[in-house]
Amino acid sequence: MKRRAFLRQGIASSALLFQLRVNGVEAESSTPIPLKNIVQGKGLYVGAQATKGQLSREDLGEFVANNFNMLTAGLELKWAALRPTPATFDFGGADWMVDFAAKKSMRFHGHNLCWNVSNPKWFSTVLNPSNSRRMLEEHITTVAKRYSGRVDAWDVVNEPIDLRSPRPDGLHTGPWLDMLGPEYIDIAFHAAAAADPGAIRVLNIYQVEQDQDRSDFVRRATIDHLKEWLKRGVPIQAIGLQSHIGTSLPLASESRDQFVRKVRDMGLEVMITELDVNDSHLVDTASANDRDKIVAGYYYDYLTDVVPLGKTKRITFWTVTDKFNWIDAGSSQGPGRHRPGLLDTDMRPKPVYDAVAKALEHLVST
Ligand code: XIL
Predict the structure, then answer these.
(1) pTM of the predicted model, to two decimals?
(2) CA 328 centroid distance within chain
(3) Choice from 115, 322, 323, 326 to test ligand 1 binding pocket (greatest atom count within 8 A of CB)
(4) CB of 319 shorter than 6 A to ligand 1
(5) Is the Cβ atom of 242 under 6 angstroms away from ligand 1?
(6) Rounded CA gap, 188 and 165, in Å?
C-alpha cells in the first residue's frame, strides 16, 4: 500500500507504516549512534537549532555537540537580540553561539539577517522610509562581516512570501516591505554578498512543504519571484525549506515535488533548515506512544522523499528535545503537550531519533 493511503487510515496504520518503512526500529536503543557519525564523509551535514541557555546545560550541550555537525542559533542572531537600540549592537549571545560551534567543529548556519517578524520594539517608532535602507545595509554589513569565515550559510531573508498575504504577489507584509517595498530583498542579498561573499546566501521559505489551502499559490509566487530576482542579478544561491511540517496534513504531493524540481532547475541549492513535526491535532486524541510513532514516520518519509529530490546536503532539526519546544512555548495549551522533538522531556531518544538515524543511513547508502 502506498504511504498516502496509510496516512489516510489514521493512527494504527500510520504506526504500521512506520514499522514497515523503517523496519521495526521504533524500539528505543540505549546507545544510539550519533547522527553526525552516520553522515560523516558522505557530503551530508546535520544541524540542530538551539539557544545559548539550552546549550549551557551539560546534557543538551553534549548531545548537540556529539550528534550534529552544524548549529543554528534559535534567537541570538535575530534583530531582536542583536539590536537593543537603533544605534547599538549586542553581540554577547551571538558570539557565544558562533564560538560554541567553532569549539565543537560544527558549521554555523546564520539565522537570520532580515525578516518582517521578530524585530525590536523600536522598529515601530524609529524605522521610516528614508532611514530604513541605510539601517538594513548597515546591519547586514556589520553582522555578516563580523562572522565572515565562520558562517557556512546565511538566511539572508526569512519568510519573504506568506500564505496569508493580502497582496497579489504574496509578499510577506511587515516593516521592511512597508518601508522599502519589494526591493528590500534585493538590498539584503546585495549587502550580504558584499559583506561575506564566502557564505551561502539562502532565501528561507515556508508553507510549501505540504498541501494546505493556498500552498500552490505560495509555490507559484515563489517560483515567479525567483525567476525575476535571478534575472535581475539578485545573488540568491539557495532555498531553505523550513519544513515545519504537521501531522494534520498528508506529507507529500506532486506539486511539492514539482516545486522542488523547479528550484533545482534554476541552479539553486535546496536546504532543509528547520525540520520538525507538529502533532497538535493529535494531542487530545492519541497516546504519547502512538503520536511518537506517527511523528517518527513523518520525519522518516519527509527526509527520504525530499533529500534525494532536492539533492539536499544540509538538514537542520529545529526541535532537539520536547523539553524546549517552540510549539508549546508559542501555544496557549501550555507546556509539555507537544512531542515534536528527537528526545523526550527527560532527554531520552524517542522513536523519532531512530527514524532519523534510519533515514540518514538510507540516504547515505543510496
Ligand atoms: C522560533 C524560535 O524557535 C522560538 O524560540 C522563538 O520564540 C520564535 O521563533 N520560523 C523561523 C524561526 O524562521 O525563527 C522560528 O523560531 C520558528 C519559525
Answers:
(1) 0.92
(2) 17
(3) 326
(4) no
(5) yes
(6) 21
State pLDDT tens for residues 101-123: 999 999 999 999 999 999 999 99
Query: In the structure, what pLDDT confidence band is assigned to residue 257 with cuts at 50, 70 and 90?
Result: very high
* Mean pLDDT lowest among 106-110, 260-264, 334-338: 334-338
- Which residues 6+ apart lie within 8 Å of 87 measured at CB? none
**What is the C-alpha to C-alpha distance for residues 131 and 136, in angstroms, rounded to an integer?**
9
The answer to whether 12 and 294 have CB atoms below 8 angstroms apart is no
Peptide bond into 289 cis (omega under 30): no
User: Measuring from atom 15 of ligand 1, which residue has the nearest CA?
Assistant: 74
Pocket test residue of 241, 318, 331, 338 for ligand 1, highest count of atoms within 8 A of CB: 318
| Structural domains in the chain, sorted by start | 39-286+307-346 (3.20.20.80)
Distance (Å, whole) CA 285 – CA 231: 49
Joined together, the cell numbers standing for residue 79 give: 534583530
C-alpha cell at 334: 501550555
Q: What is the DSSP letter of 209?
A: S
Distance 78 CA to ligand 1 centre (A): 10
Main-chain phi, psi angles of 71, to 5 degrees: -135, 140
- Ligand 1: which atom is nearest the Cα of residue 244? 18
Helix 351-365 to helix 288-310 angle, to the nearest 10 degrees?
A: 20
Please give the Cα distance from 127 to 221 (Å, whole number): 27
Cis peptide before 128 (omega within 30 of 0): no
| Residues 295-316: tens digit of each pLDDT | 999 999 999 999 999 999 999 9
Burial category of 174 from C-beta neighbours within 10 Å (exposed 0-12, middle 13-18, buried 19 and up): middle
Rounded CA separation 255/4 (Å): 15
Helix %, strand %, coil % of the chain (to 5): 45, 15, 40
* Three cell numbers written together for 167: 497582496
Report CA(118)–ligand 1 centroid distance (Å): 8
326 CB within 6 A, ligand 1: yes
> 363 CA distance to ligand 1 centroid (A)?
27
